[in-house]
């Protein structure tokens, strides 16, 4: 019998199949709508290509993934049904839509709702503004680590210091996002966000594409969502930041209250 006491130090740890499947589904989500090749999915998850192919084939059999005529993998139709069932408990998009519309109408910029998922943020919804030139960094389904983009910074800034330290130890962002996302640089932006109440991304992901965000809190006063505005650099001058910041904070506070009242 294989008990923990019977294992030796040379015994390999058990394979985390669920973790691998979850990682593959996240990669497929990031690859929508174009899809992801087997090789790209394997690289992104740190898996051997045959392993990735076997898992993706199993997901397709279950309806959780599918393959198009070009061989690219996509999310499967069963996920839509599962998502609809889960939305009854987790989705606040319908509550947030009026707030997004007010923000986009008042500013002319694109407004977004993002949610925290573990060490990441995921964009849930967008409302395009009237200004004809837009930033295309954010779109529904895109995922960024906490501390990256204005939404991720707003959420990170309002977590307890101990949790911030744990997250910064886990995440190594400079490889993918540059030295502007080192722990030292992030702590400086966290301090500024706590001081101002809202966060600023001055073109750190895509040059010339700026964003601002404010955290939205749940009934336990924990930061779980963020409202953000994105646009081109000249639309986010220091003077306009002083106009947009209070507007974001007002709508974020009102949305926090609406979510809490929903129960």
From TrEMBL:
- Is Mitochondrion one of the keywords? no
Looking up InterPro entries in the UniProt record yields: GAF-like_dom_sf, HTH_MetabolicPath_Reg, Tscrpt_reg_IclR_C, Tscrpt_reg_IclR_N, WH-like_DNA-bd_sf, WH_DNA-bd_sf
Q: Which residues form the HTH iclR-type domain?
A: 15-77
Q: Which SMART domains match?
A: HTH_ICLR
| IclR-ED domain location | 78-261
Which UniProt keyword terms apply here? DNA-binding, Transcription, Transcription regulation
What name does UniProt use for this protein?
Answer: IclR family transcriptional regulator
- What phylogenetic lineage does the species belong to? Bacteria, Bacillati, Actinomycetota, Actinomycetes, Propionibacteriales
């Amino acid at each position: 019998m294989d008990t923990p006491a019977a294992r030796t130090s040379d015994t390999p740890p058990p394979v985390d199949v669920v973790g691998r499947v979850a990682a593959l589904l996240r990669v497929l989500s990031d690859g929508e709508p174009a899809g992801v090749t087997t090789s790209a999915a394997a690289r992104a998850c740190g898996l051997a290509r045959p392993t990735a192919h076997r898992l993706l084939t199993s997901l397709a059999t279950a309806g959780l993934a599918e393959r198009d005529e070009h061989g690219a993998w996509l999310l499967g139709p069963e996920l839509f049904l599962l998502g609809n069932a889960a939305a009854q408990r987790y989705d606040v998009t319908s509550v947030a839509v009026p707030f997004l519309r007010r923000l986009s109408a008042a500013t002319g910029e694109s407004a977004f709702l993002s949610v925290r998922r573990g060490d990441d943020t995921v964009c849930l919804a967008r409302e395009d503004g009237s200004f004809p030139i837009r930033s295309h960094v954010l779109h529904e389904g895109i995922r960024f680590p906490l501390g990256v983009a204005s939404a991720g910074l707003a959420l990170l800034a309002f977590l307890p210091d101990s949790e911030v330290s744990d997250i910064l130890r886990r995440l190594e962002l400079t490889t993918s996002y540059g030295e502007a996302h080192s722990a030292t640089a992030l702590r400086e932006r966290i301090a500024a966000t706590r001081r101002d109440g809202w966060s600023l991304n001055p073109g750190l992901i895509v040059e010339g594409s700026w964003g601002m965000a404010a955290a939205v809190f749940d009934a336990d006063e924990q930061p779980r969502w963020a409202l953000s505005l994105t646009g081109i650099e000249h639309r986010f001058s220091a003077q306009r930041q002083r106009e947009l910041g209070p507007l974001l904070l007002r709508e974020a506070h009102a949305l926090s209250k609406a979510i809490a009242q929903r129960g």
